[in-house]
Amino acid sequence: MSGLDGWQRSRFESEGIAHDVYRKGSGPGVIICHEMPGLTTRVIGFGEEVVAAGYTVLLPHLFGPRDVAFSVPRVVAAIPGICISREFTILAVGKTGRIAGWLRALARELHADVGGPGVGALGMCFTGGFALAMMVDAPVIAPVLAQPAAPMPIGSKRAADLGLSATDLDTVRRRAAAGCEVLGVRYASDSSVGTRFATLERELGDRFTSVELEGKGHSTLTEQRQERAVDAVLAFFDQQLRG
Asked: What positions does the domain Dienelactone hydrolase occupy (predicted)?
């Protein structure tokens, strides 16, 4: 039995990019971008929790396997494909990946379908910063960055980078100044996040709220999930999308 049973599968294409998207639920829209190595069983399980909380959830399948358990070998196997893909940037500084345009189009379509004040977006690990990039010209009013780990924090410049072009970062600043809140969740000891939370605090001021977890771990909502993180994300969606 597949963890994706009961999810409606479709193919979404925009700007020359196409990916499968899984949909389930009703209510305000939330897009959840999976972490490495792909659309794992625990990412799907977290999506089910968001559905149960009363949301229409989209799970885009962006890379790697689907409906499999997390494993380090699978992460290693996924990296080469991501590195050579023109959709993603894993090392570049001050650059927004092409996948951002596709995700913004997906958010616009979801919002047109479900209505409401806007949609939520959540990225994890390698896709953590995607939620921020979706703020630029899409109806995203509840962006969540869960352990954003790209670009890879090799050197202080990459460690602080948000994965946005200067133009997009300026737009994100203006949207935050106009009232758009941003939530970040990470383990405080997680070095893969680099110093991005400090960058977010500097760029967005009090519009950025961070939840920093104690202990050792990386995947705050899945592999090393803590209920405090899950509760914070669901409360944020509730406040921004229903309040």
From this structure: 27-139
